[in-house]
């Protein structure tokens, strides 16, 4: 009998094509699915039918899945670490550039000149105004990378190619990851050493009990006033009330994050994108293919792997 795969989000065709039609049925509604395939749908324990054997997320984080309850019920949960790492790395590169140069402010200003038709007048106005959009270079600045897994290590490599110094911190660094890390990455002994010594700090941690609100008023207070904090990992890692307090006190220059939140929207010292770190065609294809392959290997051979 064909296995029923319940899809709770749109999954890239490249991944779905790996489920042979004679062996699998795919639908967004099934009373008794054999497996669930999803991206960001917030899955509640009660919504997981007794027939479900496995759940696969086409994405890295699994904080939208009740993993503890799944483990209790013996349902393996698969994710796709690394499959969207390049997409996130590239958005972090954009975040660094937005933090160092007056790109957004300059572009907003140019928009205010819509309607000026005389080129000479336009140039005169821009020449007089452009001083206010002056930035500084990333070259020679120090980036602190917190979390040196699939994404953090790519971010570290990228920053080195821009001529930045890189300092890394990861208390859970695996031996494999440590080997892959470029030797130029200096290890910080403590998080507060990293926060106090870096011009830019980029977070690349999952949300766990140990990482929730990890970036608190103490760490924010250790930052240099010109420094920028980038969060393309998860909103919950930063204590939001502490962040607002630190921004108000000008303990850091900018917060650049992929998670809009009412307390932060509209602030001049904050740049927010709508959680688009993994929103590229390539990342969606990679994640879907990896998720489907793991799910098939499990459903057909009983193998449990996470890569
Ligand atoms: C991930 O967990 O893979 C990224 O945050 C993107 C997403 O939520 O899909």
TrEMBL record:
One of its GO terms (molecular function) is phosphoglycerate dehydrogenase activity. It comes from the Bacteria. It catalyses: (2R)-3-phosphoglycerate + NAD(+) = 3-phosphooxypyruvate + NADH + H(+); (R)-2-hydroxyglutarate + NAD(+) = 2-oxoglutarate + NADH + H(+). It is an enzyme of class 1 (oxidoreductase). Keywords: NAD, Oxidoreductase. Its EC number is 1.1.1.399, 1.1.1.95. Pathway: Amino-acid biosynthesis; L-serine biosynthesis; L-serine from 3-phospho-D-glycerate: step 1/3. Belongs to the D-isomer specific 2-hydroxyacid dehydrogenase family. Catalyzes the reversible oxidation of 3-phospho-D-glycerate to 3-phosphonooxypyruvate, the first step of the phosphorylated L-serine biosynthesis pathway. Also catalyzes the reversible oxidation of 2-hydroxyglutarate to 2-oxoglutarate. This is D-3-phosphoglycerate dehydrogenase. The chain holds residues 1 to 307 of 394 of the full protein.
